[in-house]
Write a structure and sequence with these properties.
This protein has five helices and 14 strands. The longest helix has 22 residues. The N terminus is likely disordered.
């Protein structure tokens, strides 16, 4: 699918923006690796395999990035503006695979993550079927159809209500996921619970996976393990990049602000 799109131009970059929401207190049941505002201590849950050497590097990087997000949040006092969320939504909606998609699997950001609220609303408005994750007890993900209503979920998440129709992730034409870091080859670092490691096994290799994160979290190299699934497209508040098999990226045109 990706090969059909012409090489993008190289836009002038704009400074990255971060949402300033202060993270909530840590619930007793929430593994530290999954908390949006606390560094990792000790082993983490899930299939990331942090006991191995590669996993240790991931754990150290994860702790540093979570601390960086926490420090950045502490310096801000206002939430993301409607203009911020609209610009991010426009950037994602102009990706050709999103434009063509009939069904998009996305997510609702935790405090401190890029705000996708406007994106979800605009996908619904254009008639796109939207699937959102529901965290299971084993940290795997089920998906439900989103119709505009969210309720509190496990581990501080928000999710469609239990009455919402269930959705099969394999039906999604595009999958949008969160990330703490991604490198230019598409290697992704998550929070350590392994939820998306599990879920992405149900996604065909040719289905585009898009990671959303902040500009400073696009790194030169992210340590990975054998089970890790790479992403094909990276979106930050100021950039959209398509990962190349030669460990490089090329940028999409700057989205219109009109």
């Amino acid at each position: 699918m990706q090969g059909k799109h012409p090489p993008p131009d190289h836009p002038r970059e704009t400074p990255a923006a971060e949402p300033p929401t202060r993270p909530p207190a840590l619930p007793p049941s929430l593994p530290p690796a999954l908390h949006p505002g606390l560094p990792v201590a000790g082993a983490v849950l899930g299939s990331d395999g942090d006991a191995a050497a590669g996993g240790s590097a991931k754990q150290r990087l994860r702790a540093r990035l979570l601390a960086q997000r926490r420090a950045s949040l502490a310096l801000r006092h206002e939430p993301w503006s409607s203009a911020d969320t609209a610009v991010l939504a426009t950037r994602i909606l102009q990706i050709p695979e999103i434009t063509d998609a009939r069904c998009v699997a996305a997510y609702v950001g935790l405090p401190g993550e890029p705000d996708l609220a406007d994106l979800l609303a605009r996908l619904l408005a254009r008639g796109t079927r939207v699937l959102l994750p529901v965290v299971r007890a084993d940290l795997d993900l089920d998906f439900r159809e989103y119709a505009g209503t969210l309720i509190p979920g496990a581990l501080g998440t928000r999710e469609p209500p239990a009455a919402a129709p269930s959705g099969d992730l394999s039906a999604a034409d595009v999958v949008i996921i969160p990330a703490l870091a991604v490198d230019r080859a598409g290697r992704r670092l998550g929070r350590g619970g392994g939820s998306y490691d599990r879920a992405l096994r149900r996604v065909a290799p040719d289905v585009p996976v898009i990671a959303v994160l902040y500009d400073q979290e696009l790194l030169d190299l992210v340590p990975t393990e054998e089970h890790d699934r790479s992403v094909k497209i990276i979106v930050t508040p100021s950039r959209t990049l398509r990962c190349e098999p030669t460990d490089g990226t090329r940028e999409h045109p700057r989205p219109s602000t009109s």
